[in-house]
């Protein structure tokens, strides 16, 4: 794990995708939490979208971001449960070059501390495709907070030891300041 040699923070270009048939910008608290948390950490929010929980719309949007040289990380919220409309894992898994099995396992462990056995109904997952890290979280703001604070804030920080995901991501051009 000697690839983690960075001593300075390296801001990443992150896209946030909310998957919902009912949410819009006025009530998307999960997407808003993720956008705020990543920018407070020093990363750049390069895109934020809300789309219907439809397998092909999800796959199309995430594929576009995987192909975009500016996007290094995609974090989605919603669609990871067991209902008929929960399509995120089915849409996203075929896109992975490599799955990050430990992400879902660790998320469910952390979530178990808060929810007990109900966490087994989460199909949260992570993977890498074309040098883009993809993390699919449940739709609740609490679940997004658990994933961000318990996993993502450290794993998306180049200074975190003994290892993190930053060294595995594609390089992106510097985004202009807004």
Automatic annotation (TrEMBL):
Superkingdom assignment: Bacteria
Classification via Gene3D superfamilies: MoaB/Mog-like domain (3.40.980.10)
CDD domains, per database record: MogA_MoaB
Pathway of action: Cofactor biosynthesis; molybdopterin biosynthesis
The keyword Nucleotidyltransferase belongs to this UniProt entry's keyword annotation: no
Coiled-coil positions: none
Function as written in the Swiss-Prot or TrEMBL entry: May be involved in the biosynthesis of molybdopterin.
SUPFAM superfamilies, per the entry: Molybdenum cofactor biosynthesis proteins
Family the entry assigns: Belongs to the MoaB/Mog family.
Name of a matching Pfam family: MoCF_biosynth
Organism, scientific name: Shewanella litorisediminis
Protein's UniProt name: Molybdenum cofactor biosynthesis protein B
Keywords: Molybdenum cofactor biosynthesis
All residue ranges annotated as the MoaB/Mog domain in the record: 15-159
């Amino acid at each position: 794990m000697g690839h983690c040699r960075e001593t300075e923070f390296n801001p990443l270009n992150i896209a946030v995708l909310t998957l919902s048939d009912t949410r819009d910008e006025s009530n998307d608290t999960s997407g808003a939490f993720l956008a705020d948390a990543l920018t407070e950490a020093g990363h750049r929010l390069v895109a934020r979208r809300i789309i219907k929980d439809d397998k092909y719309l999800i796959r199309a949007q995430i594929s576009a971001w995987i192909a975009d040289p500016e996007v290094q990380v995609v974090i989605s919220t919603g669609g990871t449960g067991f209902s008929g409309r929960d399509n995120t894992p089915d849409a996203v898994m075929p896109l992975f070059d490599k799955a990050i099995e430990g992400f879902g396992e660790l998320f469910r462990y952390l979530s178990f501390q808060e929810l007990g056995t109900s966490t087994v109904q989460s199909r949260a997952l992570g993977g890498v495709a074309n040098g883009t890290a993809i993390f699919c979280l449940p739709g609740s703001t609490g679940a997004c907070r658990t994933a961000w604070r318990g996993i993502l804030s450290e794993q998306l920080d180049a200074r975190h030891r003994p290892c993190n995901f930053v060294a595995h991501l594609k390089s992106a051009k510097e985004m202009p300041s807004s």
